[in-house]
Design a protein that fits this description.
12% of the residues lie in helices and 62% in strands. It has four helices and 17 strands. The chain is mainly β.
């Protein structure tokens, strides 16, 4: 961060944190209640700061506008000024929670702050102010400063492995489908569950839940087996023909519910490939 940006963060932080070093008192006290990452994907995420506003006056105040500047990796990422269409009222001696969101798209971030791209996470510094209006229309801007880190998320990868055929006849098959779930990120994640659908030669042959309660280390990989008992008279001869004449087209799709240091997320999975059939 530049010296000017760091100074702004420090100056405003003393107000938000209520430091005794700041002699100025405000009618509205601000406190950070939560920081949350949402909408996580390989394309970006949303980082939201939840700030509580406490009106210490005996009369109401209206939040009429807010502004904030976002600095990431010493580069200015966003400079936002918003005039509220409808003022947000904070009643006397009451508290109200507001969210200050920062939408981060990696494509724009990497062009704005190219030094972030090879990293596993980055720090976001937000400085700005909330402007309130009293019953006499007199305005007062209250400064704040916030900071949080966020991941440079690279998704989850599915690697489809050869199908193992324990038994394969014109009537049916006893198979084992194997897929590896790889974490290209540096941070570990907890796999609460993976809800999947499995297709062979364009035919849906199985669906279910796997990997409940599994751990996946940063840049680690875990392989899962799915046993399959297929009746070709029921699902069609096209699947038998595909298995008899590999490589067979396979599609593994679904959703992984994972836990990370930044919260819990639902990650879509969709991988197609042509794989060999290993007969035992």
């Amino acid at each position: 961060m530049t010296k000017a940006a760091a100074a702004a963060v420090l100056a405003a932080w003393t107000v938000l944190a209520g430091s005794p070093a700041s002699p100025q008192k405000y009618d509205v006290e601000l406190s950070l209640k939560d920081k949350k990452v949402s909408d996580l994907s390989p394309q970006g995420l949303t980082l939201a700061f939840h700030v509580e506003m406490a009106n210490t006056r005996s009369t109401p105040l209206d939040l009429v506008r807010y502004d904030y500047r976002v600095v990431i990796d010493e580069a200015e990422f966003l400079d936002l000024h918003v005039e509220l269409d409808e003022p947000l009222r904070v009643e006397p001696r009451s508290r109200l929670l507001v969210a200050l969101p920062v939408k981060i798209t990696y494509d724009y971030l990497f062009r704005t702050a190219p030094g972030v791209q090879p990293k596993d996470q980055a720090a976001c510094f937000l400085t700005g102010g909330l402007t309130f209006q009293d019953e006499r229309k007199k305005e007062k801007r209250i400064p704040f400063a916030l900071s949080a880190d966020f991941p440079i998320y690279r998704g989850l990868e599915v690697r489809i492995q050869p199908i193992v055929a324990k038994n394969l006849t014109v009537g049916g098959a006893d198979l084992v489908f194997r897929a590896a779930l790889r974490n290209p990120n540096s941070f570990p994640c907890r796999i609460d569950r993976v809800t999947y659908r499995l297709g062979l030669v364009g035919v849906n042959v199985a669906e279910g839940i796997i990997a409940q309660g599994s751990g996946l280390e940063g840049r680690g990989e875990k392989t899962f087996d799915i046993p399959l008992l297929l009746d070709f008279f029921e699902i069609g001869k096209i699947v038998y023909d595909g298995l008899e004449q590999p490589p067979v087209p396979v599609r593994f799709s679904g959703e992984a519910e994972i836990g990370t240091p930044w919260g819990n997320f639902k990650i879509p999975l969709d991988q197609s490939d042509k794989v060999a059939v290993q007969k035992l």
